[in-house]
Amino acid sequence: MDSLFSYGNLGASDDAPGQPPATALEALRTVFGYDSFRGQQADIIDHVVRGGDALVLMPTGGGKSLCYQIPALVRDGVTVVVSPLIALMRDQVTALRELGVRAAFLNSSLGPAEAREVERAMVQGEIDLVYVAPERLVTPRFLDLLDRTRLALFALDEAHCVSQWGHDFRPEYLQLSILHERHPMVPRIALTATADVQTRAEIKDKLGLTDARVFLSSFDRPNITYRVVPKKSERQQMLAFLRDNHPEDAGIVYCMSRNKVEEVAAWLNQQGREALPYHAGLPAETREANQDRFIKSEGLVMVATVAFGMGIDKPNVRFVCHLDPPKSLEAYYQETGRAGRDGLPANAWMAYGMADVVMLRQMLEQSEAGDSHRRVERGKLEALLGFCETSDCRRQVLLNYFNETLPEPCGNCDTCLDPVETWDGTIAAQKALSAVYRTGQRYGAGHLIDVLVGNATEKVVQQNHDQLKTFGVGKDLTKVEWQSVYRQLVATGLLTVDLEGYGGFRLTDAGVAVIKGQRVVKLRKDPVLERRRGVHDALRRHTARGGSVGGGLSGEGVSRSGARGTLSAADDALWHALKDCRTTLAKAQGVPPYVIFHDSTLLEMVAQRPRDHATFAHLPGVGGRKLERYADAFLEVIRQHG
Ligand code: ADP
Ligand code: ZN
User: Fold this and answer.
1) Least buried of 266, 321, 377, 593, by fewest C-beta within 10 Å?
2) How far apart are CA 211 and CA 52, in angstroms?
3) pTM given for the model
4) Where is the HRDC domain (predicted)?
């Protein structure tokens, strides 16, 4: 029984069973310890409590879980939550039990006796939520169990898993319509953070939710600061970024290949930054152990391929770095979206350079997809490159891609914070393009730049390229500037990459039009030096405002203008002491620290310094159960820090 009931048991069942909360607001306050609903939560919960079907489209960190957890408490009967990953179920159930909610899961990690115990609790109505893997759900045994259980609600989490085109496709999701066929009176709520329109339509269709009310939230993540920096020495750049901004925070670094994951993780450790690798080539036990450590520790860096991420509920991932470009803007949004779930400031940082652009173009050229599919791929690539190369607000570009309009520049991305200059690069582009043309459309940037700046290397001389008209016509720009020009020419499709030979550049029709003077070229001026902003630890910056740290996705709690400052020494000492207290409690129970309290709750303790239970109870994230269990320990720490 250990894995299921290892801390506490079925939630509150050891206490005299309390009265279930009568209203949604009461549940929010007494169980979850929050004052008010966010965004559309109140409407969604109201609709579902009344028995309506709902499709909830809300970004990561938007607060989807409450949308079914609260109806589960208010409605009579058992809520069945379909969830695709064991780790996800475990984390959710752990967090719910901490709150005193009667929750359990049923999946392959349970032994038969444990599973039977959960089944019994369902039939007896001793449980409010049960998380189930989709493959178990559709078994005759489970369907029979459902027939004998009083059901409150079906919640279909990560509903995009039903999409065959997405990378999280789970065939069993296609069978979930059986729930509605067998239990037409039980309401259903499907939830996803997927931003793309096609997948949304597919969810409705495949899950038979055509009549469900759709709740669409903004997909903006205002607390995430987006940055894309030109690559020079990517590791050093990243290390500097981490030192400046996240000296002790947890985060994820995405790389494309398994080898690179291993190398970067090892290198970070050498640099004194604790890091672990994660990719599909590692043994399952190693992957699981590394993931577990990431979730349970405070300042660890996970270096990973895209195999890592789905089902990571850790709310205080403070940064997501990309050392290689993501596959698409959808992927980028999803990967960076793992930062800052708790609504506190977080960073999305990408290093991007010429080699990446060339590689992406090559991948597209090599793709064996049919014509129409290829057009889609091309469109996605152009969108991604457009995002990387933009001199406009990155958030506007990103949201626009998901058909959402942000009326004003966001003020919280690199191009807003450090506006990028653009210049009329038509003449430079003509020179760069004619160098390609005159050398026979066979060479990459290195050789072409030698020709442009008049560098008579052995190769240049050997090929007689020092005799060309373009030899030396580009002395007005530095090598680095020419790199930037070529990168942008490839990114904007004026050049393409030859697949035969050595990846040399070739002109496209658009490129020819530039040479002929039929087209102007606007280029961005890459920032020469990355400016080191004294932002430091995002959390500190945040408390320095002196205000409440709540707000989350509503945007109010988020400093957009880059308010700066640091915690005072006393606050800093208290903050670390509170974190230590949390770690000790978490270790004793074998749960992740954030399950005890989120960072935002600890930061409120620093800001408000509650002295007694009454004031402690007002902190966001402190419900009845947590007040009872943890107030004394944290109040003692606060007392010691005067
Ligand atoms: P999602 O599942 O949409 O990614 P979660 O349900 O994990 O988001 O919620 C994100 C964070 O916001 C969690 O830390 C959660 O406790 C917090 N949260 C959700 N709703 C509220 C609310 N009404 N008030 C304060 N915090 C909230
Ligand atoms: Zn912006």
Assistant:
1) 266
2) 10
3) 0.85
4) 568-642
